[in-house]
Specification:
about 425 residues; alpha/beta; Rossmann fold; 2 domains; eight-stranded mixed β-sheet; six-stranded parallel β-sheet; 16 helices; 14 strands; binds nicotinamide-adenine-dinucleotide
């Protein structure tokens, strides 16, 4: 089988299928990615992925090729896992990578085959791809949306909450569903549109939970309540659940922001104004500016102030900085005239490509925080949370203000009376 696109989704899909004994060829259009994979280096940071890939390569079940190296082959199953980023002008999903992958399949695959869409595409996309490219062809089309979380993608592949298979051709659906035999998860067989919408609705709901708890956090600040306790109290209700009720600087990453925008756009295009989603987006945008607002409240004019930004990846355990709150926050600090130093254990390489060189980047916390008057926690990496915060008195400059954008540090900071702590939804303590 073939996996087209070797990013976070495609690489995990290819490696896991190979681990289960299938013959898998992973192809990508990106020469750098291809070269590093060919040289045994996994081009992204994803825990457990190198260990999953290695045996597949060794046993010969897994091969990586550049797109241009394959011509006119026969293969029964083709997974598409290319990107579907936002179009810059309206939030719609950009399908150009999908379209070129489908065209490539039509030009190069010689036999009857099932095309399995792992990429996130808006409802109706599968049907229009079938109408435009695949009608009366030798290809069947199955939607099999991906729900993995970066940072635990390998675990999620083997322990999904559900497997969704959207198909018209029931036989093709059965073939795809049989690939997951032995995985303990409900398999939901649907039509293609419903499968596509399940993916968007899931991401939109999770984003809504985050924006909701952030709104409650902002109310907490007005009445001097503690969002952490409020959130615990809400989450203990089994109808609500504990997950995604962590207040902070909002969601980021390569999925939630673009998928929420795309569903909003899609709804508008279908004549429906999805008010809730519009608010989710604007709450999330506002939340990102909170650390800078809190910094100004505490320090006054920020011009010339040294500020450390702790964390660049959009969440811990990934090097993915796509739509990471830290990047926006750094740009806001630069606009205020701050001298910015930032650190991340694995995302510095990716960040160098998007930030001006005046931002000094470090892989560990002490380098970034040295001499800073304030620090903002933007990603709750374990090494930041477990850092010896009592050791900062001599390293930081007064007033040694820590803005905890992820509400992860209070228990560490309160032990050090020389640091000033400001969380989200819990006031100045
Ligand atoms: N990253 C996640 O956590 C996640 C989770 C669930 C679903 N998804 C969805 O899965 C899809 C892929 O996401 P990702 O994060 O893996 O993307 P990614 O950007 O990391 O990887 C996509 C890869 O596809 C390659 N590519 C683009 N066009 C190609 C072509 N014509 N032929 C061959 N390769 C091509 C790119 O070079 C890139 O390596 C997206 O639709 C995304 O929304 C992502």
């Amino acid at each position: 089988m073939l996996v087209i696109g070797l990013g976070y989704v495609g690489l995990v899909q290819a490696a896991a299928l190979a681990e289960r004994g299938h013959e898998v060829t992973g192809i990508d259009i990106d020469l750098d990615k291809y070269n590093s994979l060919r040289n045994g280096r996994v081009s992204i940071y994803e825990p457990d992925l190198p260990e999953l890939i290695k045996p597949g390569l060794k046993k010969g079940h897994l091969t990586f090729l550049h797109l241009s190296e394959i011509k006119e082959i026969s293969v029964p199953l083709i997974f598409i896992a290319v990107g579907t980023p936002s179009l810059p002008f309206n939030g719609n999903a950009d399908l150009s990578q999908i379209q070129s992958a489908i065209q490539w399949i039509k030009d190069n695959i010689r036999n009857n085959a099932v095309i399995v869409m792992k990429s996130t595409v808006l409802p109706g996309t599968g049907q229009s791809l079938i109408n435009k490219y695949l009608k009366d062809s030798r290809f069947s089309y199955v939607s099999n949306p991906e729900f993995l979380r970066e940072g635990q993608a390998v675990y999620d592949w083997y322990h999904p909450d559900r497997i969704v298979i959207g198909c018209q051709d029931q036989e093709a659906g059965k073939v795809v569903s049989s690939l997951y035999n032995g995985i303990k998860a409900p398999v939901l067989i649907t039509d293609i549109n419903s499968a596509e919408l399940i993916k968007y609705a899931s991401n939109a709901f999770l984003a809504t939970k985050i924006s909701f708890i952030n709104e409650i956090a902002n109310v907490c600040e007005l009445i001097d309540a503690d969002i952490e306790l409020v959130s615990e109290g809400i989450g203990l209700d089994s109808r609500i659940g504990k997950s995604f009720l962590k207040a902070g600087i909002g969601y980021g990453g390569s999925c939630f922001p673009k998928d929420v925008r795309a569903l909003d756009y899609f709804s508008s295009m279908n004549g429906y104004s999805f008010e809730l989603l519009k608010s989710v987006i604007s709450v999330n945008n506002r939340q990102r500016s909170l650390p800078v607002k809190k910094l100004k409240e505490a320090l006054g004019d920020l011009n010339g102030k040294k500020v450390a930004v702790l964390g660049l990846a959009f969440k811990p355990n990934t090097d993915d900085i796509r739509e990471a709150p830290a990047i926006d926050i750094i740009n806001m600090l630069l606009n205020e005239g701050c001298e910015v130093r930032a650190c991340d254990p694995v995302a510095v390489g990716n960040t160098k490509k998007v930030l001006p060189s005046e931002v000094k980047l470090f892989e560990s916390l002490p380098g970034a925080i040295g001499g800073a008057q304030a620090a903002i926690l933007t990603t709750e990496w374990e090494e930041f949370v477990n850092f010896d915060w009592t050791s900062l008195n001599d390293i930081m400059s007064p007033p040694r203000l820590i803005i905890d954008g992820r509400n992860a540090l209070r228990h560490c900071i309160v032990q050090n009376p020389d640091l000033k702590y400001v969380g989200i939804g819990r006031g100045i303590k």
